[in-house]
Amino acid sequence: MDFFDERVLAALKDGKPRSFTTLLGEVGFSHNTLQHHLDHLVARGLVVKEKMASNGLGRPKFAYHVPSTATKQVTAALQNPYEALVTLQFTRLRHLCRFEKGGYCKEAKKSCAPQNCPQTRK
Question: What would the pLDDT profile of 23-34 be if each residue is shown by its tens digit?
Fold first, then answer.
């Protein structure tokens, strides 16, 4: 995570949705830089992009916020910038796990599932 990602996440960590224009004023980046980093954070699942209600014609406006599922990850990453933040779907993690064997977790002695996995943060 770089300086730009940290600034965007710090602005959004309270969970309140912000429009692109509001966020642009808060972080002080150029339009393209902010758009690039927001797209990157949305793809990683750390930020959610939602369409805002509109009464008029024209392009839709979007609001950005940190989802409640990623709040712990974002807070941990902002507190310790030297810790790498990795987001990975559980199905991909299963392929890397040394405890998983055929859908069964040898460490937890249960089925291999996110709620049973000893390697995921709770």
Answer: 999 998 899 999
